[in-house]
Design goal:
There is one protein chain. With 198 residues, the protein is α+β, with helices and mostly antiparallel strands. It has three domains: 112 residues, 2-Layer Sandwich (Nonspecific Lipid-transfer Protein, Chain A); 40 residues; 31 residues. The protein is elongated. The termini are far apart.
């Protein structure tokens, strides 16, 4: 069985060692003194709270007490650590509740000290298992993105071709050109009227 407390402490230990060796990370951690970050796994009772004390992140057990809470699925968090955090926030796979300024500081801190998740997991579950977990999360994330793109394309095609609710790109461009022509014609007509009135 995987010891979640051991994994948490191992990851925090690595993060804290990176904070102490990087001046910019240490500066942000000082600004976050006493701030609590709560990480909530969506659709589960699992949460992970940390508090910044003396340039170190420590486990915090009170689930209700936090300055900012970040929520998302396990896959979203794995992708967040691997990819651009701004994309995850924009597409809605990660949610934020609480003090946005504190959230931005934590985001900046984690971007500076982004740990190698596979490396950290390998110390607890072994190299093969860690590699499999990371590969699985990447494949699942890619599959979900691909499925979303296909679904969007199918909905667009249905709205355009089947029920003619949305115009195609060609129809929209044609309509825009016709509107521009009418606008130009009206402007020319207005000029002629003004000239005639003089």
């Amino acid at each position: 069985m995987i010891d979640k407390l051991k994994i948490s402490k191992g990851i925090l230990s690595k993060i804290n060692s990176q904070i102490t060796t990087r001046t910019s990370a240490k500066k942000i951690s000082q600004e976050l003194e006493g701030k609590i970050l709560s990480i909530q796994i969506k659709n589960t009772s699992h949460f992970f709270n940390v508090i910044m004390i003396s340039n170190e992140l420590n486990l915090h057990t009170n689930k209700e007490n936090f300055d900012v809470q970040i929520s998302g699925s396990l896959i979203s968090f794995t992708n967040l650590l691997r990819d651009n955090s701004s994309d995850a926030l924009r597409d809605g796979s990660i949610g934020i509740n609480g003090d946005v300024a504190v959230a931005q500081k934590f985001q900046k801190l984690f971007e500076m000290i982004k740990p190698d998740i596979e490396e950290e997991l390998s110390h607890v579950v072994g190299d093969v298992m860690a590699n499999n977990i990371v590969k699985f999360s990447k494949k699942t994330g890619d599959w979900m993105l691909n499925t979303r793109d296909i679904l969007q394309e199918n909905i667009k095609e249905y709205l355009q071709e089947e029920i003619k609710l949305m115009p195609s790109k060609y129809e929209f461009n044609f309509f825009s050109k016709e509107v521009s022509k009418i606008r130009d014609d009206i402007e020319r007509l207005e000029k002629k009227i003004n000239e005639f009135q003089r």
